[in-house]
Amino acid sequence: MKMGMKTLASVLLAAGLLQATAAVAQTEIQWWHSMGGALGEALNGLATKFNDSQKEYKVVAVYKGQYPESMTAAIAAFRAGNAPHLLQVFEVGTATMMAAKGAIVPVATVMADAKEPFDPKAYLPTVTGYYSDLKGNMLSFPFNSSTVMFYINKDAFKKAGLDPVAPKTWKEVLVAAEKLKASGQSCVYTTSWPSWMHIENFSAWHNVPIGTKQNGMGGFDTEFTFNSPLHVRHIAMLGDMAKKGLFTYAGRTNQGDAKFSSGECAMFSGSAGAQAGIKKTAKFEWSINFIPYHDDVKDAPQNSIIGGASVWVMGGKKPAEYKGVAKFLAFLSRPEIQMEWHTTTGYVPITQASYDLTRQSGFYDKNPGADMPVKQLTNKLPTANSKGLRFGNYVQGREVIEEELEAVFAGTKDAKTALNDAVKRGNEILRKFQAANK
Amino acid sequence: MEKRVVFRSAWLPYVLLAPQLAITVVFFFWPAGQAVWYSFQLQDAFGLHSEFVWFDNFTYLFSDPHYLESFKTTAVFSVSVAGLGIAISLLLATMADRVVHGALIYKTVLIWPYAVAAAVAGVLWAFLFAPSIGIVTYVLKGFGVDWNWIIKGDQAMLLIIIASVWKQISYNFLFFLAGLQSIPKSLIEAAAIDGAGPARRFWTIVLPLLSPTAFFLLVVNIVYAFFDTFGVIDSTTQGGPAQATQILVYKVYHDGVKAADIGGSSAQSVILMIIVIALTAVQFKFIERKVQY
Asked: Is the domain of A354 the same as that of A342?
């Protein structure tokens, strides 16, 4: 018996060693991400597909918690000298990552060094603009992108005696809101991600700047400018709607999604990625539409900007590993892979080729509205005000905006004071970032 | 007469102390020292560039009205949590002390919440009071109360106070019950014979004899409200809305971990450290003197 145990142990040990040597032959690429649930499964699917397609490299995808958590984890790991090769970072972390020269390697460099084909022009201009420097070098690899959309509950519209068609302008939204309220709708309009929708995308959609220096893309000495009369007017309108019970505040992240899909709220602005959840839970007819605009603003609507995340290549790794990273990123850029990611997750197809491929496949005919986000993102060629934003420490900056907006929606501050305060506090954060990243 | 253990060997006492000292140094002094060091630095998130800036982080903090506001928020929160926690648990302990039948059941049930993790307690209360689906919200609506702590700061504050107090009552209850049981029955009976009613007996005999316990609990509860309520806040309001529930310790976490502002966050930790040292000093000074009677 004792002998048996020993033999068993040595066999197991030998097997383990064999497996270990097999693993050593492959170059491992660590990929930290924040895709939980169904999205995580889709992401793992991509990694597995890549691993099965060749033998040299093995991508190990690790879920590290939500966006801020995985970024924090990677920063801590970098400080301790064992950062992953690839890190998925949400759009507001872009400036922080970009400023960390030495901690990251621009994707354009990685691809050029490995002689992998990579064409930034293949991507939608709104996407390229967001993740490139001013010279047009792609800094990070666009991965999951979405944008903010406007959803309506058609059944609630019919009940209120309205045509089940989404209002196009904020004027029309107000008219519809009054009627919905009168029909007994307890929550008329709500939103997820208030700053993303009502400051960032609002600015792009109306072609007004969020900050100087091309929304921060032109340098760290940028300043916020979202306290313009147009911004004040818009936020004041929302504050007024809140007072009249036409707008229900749901919270700073995606809490609005559930309020809409449960039928509580009749109109809703939220991520294009909310579609999947709504499809699953909503027991009513709904539609996905362009976000409303103020029709007296010249040339509005412009185009909306993306949200979501991109993949950054971390610095200080071996050349062989970077080769694997480049191969993997080239794999991810393939139209059929992009299409698979787009159709399974609801994120926007970010290359023109994958968009065309998806259209040809008939996906949009079967899923009406699924191409609305791309159409909104490419509504017009992006301007300096609408190609994206890049503000240092914007995790903090956005929070300042959210706080001040909350004060307006709670009725404790008027829109003008709140936006002025947000700009002032935001600029202090920008100066601090500038000083820390000289 | 003082009792003294005499070690014959010169090094043995140090060896015996070493593990505890090592833990203290590694887990307390080292990080605390680092916090002090970082509080004088301006650093980017990745630690690639850092600059010694003297007291800039501190002057920035004290010129930030939101940081000063956070002191006020912390004061309101801590005093409410400590006050309510102590008052309610004292009431419950006095009741439980008088129960004749099923005392064990009452006591067990009252001690139960202490075993619940702070984050779980937070989620539990957040669910009960959830603006759309909460059962308490539903009842409150019936009374015409518009309950939405997502946007109403005072309601958010109330929510985290309730959750934090609920979690701390058990701890206070245990101490009060032990305190009550150590009061000699003869004293109370004597007072009863002299014609003092239950209320009178409580105010003139029980309460003064419980005062050392109460003072100890006051200090412990304030420290609890300062630091241990992090889980409750992080799982419910996360400091919002509009910073209405951003107490000092939450701001340290938020600025340091979420916003990657190491210098500013360290400066706040140092200030908090000074507050704790002051609180501990007070505790030693008063409790040591008052605890012997």
From this structure: yes
A90-111: pLDDT as tens digits: 988 888 898 888 899 999 999 9
Residues of A in contact with B66 (CB under 8 A): 425
| Same domain assignment for residues A294 and A188 | yes
The answer to whether A13 contacts chain B (CB < 8 Å) is: no
A300, A356: one domain:
no
Higher pLDDT pick, A197 / A346? A197
* Amino acid letter for position A119: D
Assess whether A67 and A168 both reside in one domain: no
Instruction: List, for residues A387-419, the tens digit of each pLDDT value.
Output: 889 998 888 899 899 999 999 999 999 999 999
* DSSP-derived pairing of the beta strands B41-43 and A141-146: unpaired
pLDDT band (50, 70, 90) for residue A28: very high
B chain contacts of residue A399, beta-carbon cutoff 8 Å: 259
Q: Across the interface, do A100 and B48 touch by the CB < 8 Å criterion?
A: yes
What is residue A1's predicted lDDT score, i.e. its pLDDT? 40
Q: Tell me: do A428 and A283 sit in the same domain.
A: yes
Residues of chain B found within 8 Å of residue A105, distances taken between Cβ atoms: none
pTM beyond cutoff 0.90: no
Tell me which residue range forms the domain holding A71.
20-146+307-366
Determine which helix (DSSP H) or strand (DSSP E) holds A313, and give its type and residue range: strand A307-314
* A33 lies within 8 A of chain B by CB: no
Q: Of all residues in chain A, what percent carry a pLDDT higher than 70?
A: 95
The answer to whether residue A224 is domain-embedded is: yes
Kindly state whether A65 is in contact with chain B, defined as any CB-CB distance less than 8 angstroms: no
Query: Any alpha helices (H) in A183-289, and if so which ranges?
Result: 194-195, 202-205, 212-215, 229-244, 255-261, 275-281
How many angstroms separate the Cα of A74 from the Cα of each of A103, A110, A372? 10, 19, 34
Q: A196 and A179 share a domain?
A: yes
Percent of chain A with pLDDT over 90: 64
Q: Do both A259 and A344 map to the same domain?
A: no
Phi/psi-derived region of residue A193, left when phi > 0, alpha when psi is between -120 and 50, beta in every other case: left
- pLDDT < 70: residue spans in chain B: 1-4, 287-293
pLDDT at A125 over 70: yes
User: What is the Cα–Cα distance from A20 to A22, expressed in whole angstroms?
Assistant: 5
Is there a contact between B48 and A101 if contact means CB atoms under 8 Å apart? yes
- What CATH code is carried by the domain that includes residue A134? 3.40.190.10
Q: What domain count does chain A have?
A: 2
- Interchain CB distance below 8 Å, A396 and B261: yes
The token pair at B79 is 């005093």
Q: Are both A290 and A409 inside the same structural domain?
A: yes
In a domain, A162, yes or no: yes
